[in-house]
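Morning, I've got a small favour to ask if you have a moment. It would help a lot if you went through both lines with me. Thanks so much in advance, here it is.

***
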Amino acid sequence: MQGLIVVVSGPSGAGKASITKGCGLEIAQSWTTRSPKSRDMPGEYRYVSREEFMEGVCADQLLEHDEHFGNMYGLAKPPEGKVVITDVDVNGALKLRERPDVILVGVLPPDPIVEICLQRLHARGDETTDEILDRKDRIKYESELILAEWPRIIRNDDIVSARQQLKTIIANCCKTRKIPYK
């Protein structure tokens, strides 16, 4: 049975993780060299050393990988025949977008995008002001790329509505591809 990987991407603070975690699909596991954060869900990440990460890359255990703000991130190969979801950065999404088992969905906050993302990052309270400001150029780059190239974009000004839009996109893609979806 054919599976599907729903790849949700957007700049930091867009709400991609909140939307992804609330849509009811199994979360595809990612590997990372960063430390756990309080908002991480159990099983969402496999926390590894840089050496273990590179061993996984060499063993072809990851669909894509990238370094982001000094940490390595990579998407583990999901089980065959399942519909899974993940949120990845824009570079990771670009590496996956040509795969036939991937649907790409961008998430952006309402305008002004950069300012809203920075406000949301500040409200999380798990990064310093300097760390947040370091993300500003990256947020602008990722937002512009998503607006120019992503086939599906959700504007996250309301989390409930954004989750519903994502569920509708997934249901339509599964129906088109004749993949069972709850």
